């Protein structure tokens, strides 16, 4: 699909601060995620507070990145607030099921589950802010409504 067709299919476009905040949040989340494997990008102050922080951060990062990516694209296409909530609940349930109930896929870990919940909750806050304040009508849109 051509870029101009995609742009015309968007109901909303991001404000400049929204367009900049999304990749910044992805970068922060990925930096935390890869801090598990690369000591030179770890944040020492986090380790002082919680020495096993990097053992659990992957759940936070994965839930956060998945949620804000689906939500960010979705709101630009006109996704409703109800759908944002439903997607968040779905990710929360998947996180809890994988972390607490499926031991052959993953070692059950309540702390990982909590980190995943925090990822979804912070993602929800970001999506609420951009849904309410970070978008403007797409003047080129061919979407009615």
Q: How would you characterize the overall build of this protein?
A:
The chain has about 140 residues and is mainly α. It has a domain at about 50-145. Helix content is about 70%, strand content about 5%. The chain has six helices and two strands; from the N terminus they run H-E-H-H-H-H-H-E. The protein has helices at about 5-10, 15-35, 45-50, 55-75, 80-100, 110-135; strands spanning about 10-15, 135. The chain has a two-stranded antiparallel ribbon. Helix 2 (about 15-35) runs antiparallel to helix 4, helix 4 runs antiparallel to helix 5 (about 80-100) and helix 4 (about 55-75) runs parallel beside helix 6 (about 110-135). The longest helix is centred in the middle third of the chain and has 24 residues, at about 55-75. It is globular, with a radius of gyration of 17 Å. The model has no long low-confidence stretch (mean pLDDT about 90).
The strand count comes to 2
Q: Major sheet: order of its strands?
A: 1-2
Give me the oligomer status: single chain
Mean pLDDT: 91
Strand content: under 5%
Rg (C-alpha, Å) = 17 Å
Label the overall shape.
globular
**Helices and strands: which structural class?**
mainly alpha
Largest sheet data? 2 strands, antiparallel
Query: How large is the count of helical segments?
Result: 6
**Helix content, binned percent:** 55-70%
Distance from N terminus to C terminus (CA atoms, Å) equals: 23 Å
Order of helices and strands: HEHHHHHE
Unreliable stretches covering 5 or more consecutive residues: none
């Amino acid at each position: 699909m051509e870029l101009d067709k995609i742009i015309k299919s968007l109901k909303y476009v991001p404000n400049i601060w929204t367009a900049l905040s999304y990749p910044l949040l992805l970068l922060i989340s990925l930096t935390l995620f890869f801090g598990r494997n690369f000591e030179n990008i770890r944040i020492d102050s986090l380790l002082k507070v919680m020495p096993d922080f990097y053992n659990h951060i992957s759940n936070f990062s994965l839930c956060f990145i998945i949620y804000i990516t689906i939500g960010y694209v979705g709101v630009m296409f006109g996704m409703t607030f109800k759908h944002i909530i439903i997607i968040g609940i779905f990710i929360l349930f998947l996180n809890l099921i994988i972390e607490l109930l499926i031991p052959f896929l993953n070692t059950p870990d309540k702390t990982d589950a909590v980190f995943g919940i925090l990822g979804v909750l912070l993602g929800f806050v970001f999506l609420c802010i951009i849904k309410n304040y970070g978008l403007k009508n797409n003047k080129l849109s061919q979407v009615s409504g």
